[in-house]
Amino acid sequence: MNLRNPKEYIEHCLMIRDKKNRMVRLILKPAQRRLYEVIKREHKAGRPVRLLILKARQLGFSTLVEAMMYQDSATRKLVRTLIVAHRDDSTANLFRMNKLFFDSSPPAVKPMRKANNAQELVFENPTKNAAEKTVNPGLMSSIRCVTAGAGGIGRSETLTNLHASEFAFWPGDPEETLLGLMQAIPDDPNTMAVIETTPNGYNYFKTLWDGAEKGTNGWLPFFSPWFEEPEYRKPVVPGTEWTGEEKELAEAYHLDEEQMMWRRWCIKTNCGGNVELFRQEYPSCAEEAFLFSGTPFFDNQKLLLRLESAPNSIKVGRFTYSEPKEENGKPVDGRWHTDRRGGYIQLWELPKKGVPYVMGCDTAGDGSDRFIAWVIDNTTGEQVAELRFTHNAILFTRQIWCLGHYYNEALIAVETNYNSYVSMTLELWNYPKLYIRERSVDSYTHKLAKKYGFATTSQTRPVILDNLQTIIDEHPEWVKSEDALREMTHFVCNEKRRPEAESGEHDDYVMAMAITYFCRDQQSRVVKLTPAEKAQWTEDMYEDYQNADAAGKRYLLENGGTHSRKDVN
Predict the structure, then answer these.
(1) Within a 13 Å sphere around the CA of 6, how many CA atoms are in the beta-carbon half?
(2) Please, are residues 507 and 491 in contact by the beta-carbon 8 Å criterion?
(3) What SS3 state is found at 448?
């Protein structure tokens, strides 16, 4: 056996107490094996392990992390391992686990240990003979277990391994404590820092997790859902009937009936019938783990199920055009250019002949640097395209000019609160169909004047958000964008019941969607056919089309007479 092979060492030398309080060999389960492979990959690549573990309860990740750090400390010289738990009883449990590793390991691999009354294992020669200790000092490695909240923990030493257990529940200032600990770990490929926790709302761990997912903070995210645990299943009771929500969940995550039966049992028995508590303690996906700390504005469970089945866009790119000669000039000869790496427009459906479209736009401002355009098929309400832009207003205006023309001169409604330039420029360029928020008689010319664009005010904001809330509750399948769905899960009611994005999150997609669906009444909801095309549709066909759902409308358009799908390149 290779003592420096963690998996071989763990499965041959270490024992644990299982859930039935029996002493058994530590044989890795599927979720543990997957985590082990991630750590092994980082070591093989020569990178220091910096790992965030977001998990459901009792999947064995603390045990695996402890075992790997024990193996490193018990087989290598000058290793300093620090384990930090959130409570004293957890600290004691983790120390007992390490002591059991030592006590139960075979004598041939058991390192010399120095007696110590603290919650610490010191692998040194216990002799008091200085000469003997000089010749054979032992590994001079150690494993120390402490509780978070104590001032200055780990600051006075150089660490090799750090296990931050249940970090989301650390008392005091977890950020300050962790940053102090990380200063003690050198940037060396032989070091490992692991933060593992069940979720606890939107605290500093959530900030770390978001940065890890974006690849901006040097940490590697690792999530494990509850159904990765083989033991989380129960025999199905004969005659069991599943709810619509359970069926959707099973389909989204490919769960069998025994897993669903365990979920139903756990909600009733371990969670007091509280399904939201189950979702937090036993999440199915990383997003769900954080959802129920606040008061979501939308039905987040529906959003998560939709997120699992959201389709990929069929095209990604942008519009190219002849450069305007005049300053702030409109684009000429706009053409679609596919560019999956540098594109900022996604298409889920190509324009169809005669179909009316609506585009709502949220402009950058009030702390946000993002422009969002949201495009829907106004006969079905379904999203067909989006534009996400972080550049300047003139470039955004040129892109939505092209995008609007591309989708059959779509009705465009642009928010004017923080950036009236976009709406005013589209008006100056004589875009054919702009949303009109107000008509009034000019007091000087006595002619009818129109004000274009959508103004978000204290009166209009609640109205458009309530309208969007109803639409998403009834038709979450209309949303195709994964980015939008994720943003919506972070849109909550604050302590004053005002809907807003959580701290550090955006609301650009939400507002663009809300504007789009509110303004759609100024656009037709009927497919416009030419006289020749109309002749091929009977009155019954028209009636069927108007009464059909979104899928039915698509089918009739694609199969009704000459109404085949238009592939626009």
Answers:
(1) 21
(2) yes
(3) strand
Q: What is the pLDDT of residues 450-477, one digit of tens each?
A: 888 999 999 999 999 999 999 999 999 9
CB burial class (10 A; 0-12, 13-18, 19+) of residue 101?
A: buried
Residues 6 or more apart whose CB falls under 8 angstroms from that of 281 comprise 56, 57, 198, 270, 271
The mean per-residue pLDDT over the stretch 208-221 comes to 91
Q: What is the pLDDT of residues 266-310, one digit of tens each?
A: 999 999 998 888 887 888 988 887 765 557 899 888 888 898 889
Handedness of CA 11, 13, 17, 21 (dihedral sign): positive
The one-letter code for the residue type at 359 is M
Strand intervals (E) in 139-261: 141-147, 161-165, 192-197, 220-224
The structure's pTM equals: 0.62
> Is the domain covering 350-522 a CATH 3.40.350.10 domain?
no
- The first and second tokens of residue 51, run together, are 């790992």
CATH of domain 6-224: 3.40.50.300
Q: How far apart are CA 505 and CA 503, in angstroms?
A: 6
Which residues does 99 contact at the CB level (< 8 Å), separation at least 6?
Answer: 121
Distance from C-alpha of 461 to C-alpha of 456, rounded to nearest angstrom: 6
Give dist(CA 405, CA 423) in Å, integer. 15
More confident residue, 37 or 534: 37
Rounded to whole angstroms, the Cα distance separating 498 from 114 reads 60
Q: Which structure tokens are listed for 258?
A: 């025994």
Let me know the angle formed at the C-alpha of 476 by 467 and 213, rounded to the nearest 5 degrees. Answer: 110
Tokens matching residue 320: 């190219």
Q: Label each residue of 108-135 as H, E or C.
A: HHCCCCECCCCCEEEECCCCCCHHHHHH
Fold identical between 6-224 and 350-522?
no
Confidence at residue 468, expressed as pLDDT on a 0 to 100 scale: 97
Residue 361 tokens read as: 């736009």
Closest among 416, 453, 401, 433 to 523, alpha carbons compared? 433
Backbone region of residue 458 per phi and psi (left: phi > 0; alpha: psi in -120 to 50; beta: other values): alpha
Domain ranges, ordered by start, for the chain: 6-224, 244-293, 350-522, 529-569
Q: Checking phi first, is residue 138 left (phi over 0); if not, alpha (psi -120 to 50) or beta? A: left
- pLDDT-derived band of residue 440, with 50, 70 and 90 as boundaries? low
Identity of the residue numbered 228:
E
Region of 381 (left: φ > 0; alpha: ψ -120 to 50; beta: rest) is left
**For the CA atoms of 494, 56, 228, 20, what is the dihedral angle to 10 degrees?**
-150
